[in-house]
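Before drawing any conclusions, I needed to go through one protein's amino acid sequence and its backbone structure tokens, quoted below without any editing.
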Amino acid sequence: MKQTDSPIAQTYFEICCTLPIEAEELWSWFCFEKGALGLETLAESSVELTLRVFFEHKPSGGVQKLIEDFRSETASETIIKISEEGIRPVENWQTNWREHFRPVKVGQSLIILPAWETGFELDGRLPVWIDPGQGFGTGHHLSTVLALEMLEKYLLSKDTLPECMLDIGIGSGILAIAGCRLGIQKVRGVDLETEAVAEVERNSGLNGLSVRVKAVVGQPSSLEKPAPLVISNMLLRELIDVRLDLLRLTSPGGTLICSGLLGEQADELSRSVSQLGFEYRSTLDRENWRAVQFTRLENQS
């Protein structure tokens, strides 16, 4: 939720839905990307489960549009049954959300902190303060964690750090801010959502990085200058749709890191970008989520 000087919102939007248990990970990922603030399991059997999904506001276009977009963007035929939806009151929405967003230690050196957490012991870790809003990426979802860990592992292995990084689908700006904390001088990002870019500005300001982190609204095609390091935490279909831009924006010999992949989707992405001139380097895998690192071959143009 955006932290402003305006009165604290007294309501939130809630969806109760039932779906096949094998679709839980993908549906959860998708809801978080669309601005969900949290999920709660209400009931579970061997074949299906019922979830309560919390949003700050009603999803744009309504709940049925959300489901239609899920089926379209993920190429899924999953049937999601909505049993209840509506606006719910809370005594103090800010307090309610703060109860769900706690500091998260990531990798060897990072810690993700909510904007209001100023007295937390860092234990020598590099702080990334995030003000949760509509942009995906608070450090609680595994796709974000894996992207952060792979970024950290790559940068810690380098004797000379890349000066610039591009973040495709920059979301909340969490990857960009972490990159700067780890030594990158500047990050340029792009996102389709105006709200996400506003979150980037807010979060980079919280971390004192407004000059080093910049984002624009639009497609990756709006970025012109390539960089030696490109990172993207998006759905498989979105990654494949922009694969030519990923090639164009990754400098020859540069590194591409992609997260947001479930299981065999990582292999599908590898096959797709390898045909363009990327070479597979490594994978991080946890609970069926994967992040993959590639190198753009020098002789590709």
